[in-house]
Structure formats: structure tokens, C-alpha cells
């Protein structure tokens, strides 16, 4: 008789992988709803991004709009958007590590 003990371990591993995949699908849905916020210029420009790293909202206070200095407003928008997207990336990484146990699995997000 052959020893089939290795098959039991393989089945256990496959169940763990399947659960991880299910958890990731669930997390992807949850991350669509979670948002992060970043501001620039002391809060005159605000950017909000979701866990899919999509920009959801930009708010610009009237005092940030100076027709003689459009470049400054552009810089503030870029700073707020880039920070919001960075925060979204960090949120995704943190949430994913809860599922993967800190393993870096390429191509998940």
C-alpha cells in the first residue's frame, strides 16, 4: 500500500488557498467602499480616494482659486491627489496583509 499522507496535506493547503481567495474577493468589495482623504495648502484642496485607488472626490475652497496663480492651484491639486492615492495604496497593503499573513503575492492588487 502507498502512503497517501501527502494528499491530505495537499487538500488542506488547497482549502487554505481557496479560503484566502474568497477572503480577497470579499476584501476587494469592501475596499471599494473605504476611502482615504488627503489635503494640501492647509486644507484648501482636498482629495478623496477609495481602496480601488480611484479618485472619488476633489474639493477646492474658493480662496485657493487665484486667476493670477493657476500654477499654485495645480500644484496643490497634484499634492492632494498623490497623497490620497498613496494613502489608498497603504490601506490596501495593510488590509491585504491581514489575509495573506504578510506574504507578498504579486498580482493580487
Give a topology summary.
Layout lengths: L4 H29 L1 E6 L4 E6 L4 E6 L9 H31 L9
Antiparallel strand pairs: 1-2, 2-3
Keywords: Coiled coil, Cytoplasm, DNA-binding
Subunit structure: Homodimer.
GO molecular function: DNA binding
Describe the structure.
Belongs to the YbaB/EbfC family. The chain has about 110 residues and is of the alpha+beta class. The protein has a domain at about 25-100: Ybab, Chain: A (2-Layer Sandwich), CATH 3.30.1310. The chain is built from two helices and three strands; from the N terminus they run αβββα. Helix 1 runs antiparallel to helix 2. It is rod-shaped and about 70 Å long. About 10% of the residues are buried. The model has no long low-confidence stretch (mean pLDDT about 85).
In short:
The protein has 109 residues and is α+β, with helices and mostly antiparallel strands. The chain has helices at 5-33, 70-100, and strands at residues 35-40, 45-50, 55-60.
Q: Top keywords for this entry?
A:
109 residues; alpha+beta; Ybab, Chain: A; three-stranded antiparallel beta sheet; 2 helices; 3 strands; rod-shaped
Give the overall silhouette: rod-shaped
| Rg measurement, Å | 21 Å
Examine the coordinates and then state which fold CATH places here, giving the name of the CATH topology of the domain at 26-100.
Ybab, Chain: A
- What is the straight-line distance between the termini? 45 Å
CATH architecture of the domain at 26-100: 2-Layer Sandwich
The major β-sheet equals:
3 strands, antiparallel
Strand content: 15-25%
Strand order of the largest sheet: 1-2-3
Q: Give helix and strand order, one letter per element, not per position.
A: HEEEH
- What is the CATH C-level name of the domain at 26-100? Alpha Beta
The count of β-strands is 3
Amino acid at each position: 500500500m502507498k502512503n497517501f499522507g501527502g494528499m491530505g496535506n495537499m487538500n488542506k493547503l488547497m482549502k487554505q488557498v481557496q479560503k484566502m481567495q474568497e477572503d480577497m474577493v470579499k476584501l476587494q468589495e469592501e475596499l471599494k467602499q473605504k476611502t482615504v482623504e488627503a489635503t494640501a495648502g492647509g486644507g484648501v484642496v482636498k482629495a478623496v480616494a477609495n481602496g480601488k485607488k480611484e479618485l472619488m472626490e476633489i474639493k477646492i475652497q474658493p480662496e485657493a482659486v487665484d486667476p493670477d496663480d493657476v500654477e499654485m492651484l495645480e500644484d496643490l491639486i497634484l499634492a492632494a491627489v498623490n497623497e490620497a492615492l498613496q494613502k489608498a495604496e497603504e490601506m490596501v497593503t495593510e488590509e491585504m496583509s491581514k489575509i495573506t499573513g504578510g506574504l507578498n503575492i504579486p498580482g493580487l492588487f
